[in-house]
Specification:
The structure is a single chain. The protein is α+β, with helices and mostly antiparallel strands. The strands form three sheets. A three-stranded antiparallel beta sheet has the order 3-4-5. The longest helix has 20 residues. The two termini are 38 Å apart.
């Protein structure tokens, strides 16, 4: 059956959202431009101003609330293991990531817009048959990156019909050869052209 908006599948007794891809920053701003009838330069300027201001406050150690959206904060990590807190020095600590906690209004809005349905088993074969060799998979990935700016491991896996483990190995090979670069950390990792 046809997937309408979002779909859900069951994996190890948990439901998961089937990602339909990544919306690039350019696509996002063009949509705001069309929906709100604002000059394109104004939309770009507002987004840049928010990004810069948010980054400045986060860098100073604040948690920042963007009304109607949610809260942003940073986390830290030590660059090497320490046995007690006296061993921690400023030079051995760096930022780990920026976290986002959605506000109640934003969660309600998203929940109200979602159309959920069960995904057909055929969309998630147990053992996908890999598409071609590494050269063919690299070409497919680069074609995808021409249109989408970045790709996630899950998107790559679906694009070239490989398992998550194979996708990780392929992506690391592409990083090592300089074809792509890794951005972000944890669940926020994306891959962009090298």
């Amino acid at each position: 059956h046809l997937l309408v908006c979002k779909c859900v599948y069951l994996y190890q007794d948990k439901t998961r959202v089937c990602s339909k891809g990544t919306i690039s920053g350019k696509e996002f701003m063009e949509r705001v431009f069309r929906e709100e009838h604002m000059p394109h330069a104004m939309v770009v300027g507002i987004v840049q101003a928010i990004t810069t201001t948010l980054g400045d406050w986060l860098a100073k150690g604040y948690t920042v609330e963007i009304e109607g959206l949610g809260f942003f904060s940073t986390t830290l990590k030590c660059t090497h293991p320490v046995m007690n807190k006296k061993e921690v020095r400023a030079e051995s600590v760096k930022m780990s990531t920026v976290k986002f906690r959605p506000g109640i209004e934003f969660k309600r809005y998203v929940a109200g817009k979602m159309e959920l349905e069960r995904a057909d088993k055929r969309f998630f074969p147990d053992k996908p048959k890999a598409m071609g060799d590494m050269v063919a998979r690299e070409k497919s990935m680069m074609d995808f990156l021409e249109a989408n700016v970045c790709i996630t491991r899950a998107e790559y896996s679906r694009l070239v019909h490989v398992t998550a483990r194979r996708a990780s190995r392929d992506l690391q090979t592409f990083i090592d050869s300089g074809v792509i670069r890794k951005r972000g950390a944890g669940r926020s990792v994306v891959y962009v052209k090298g």
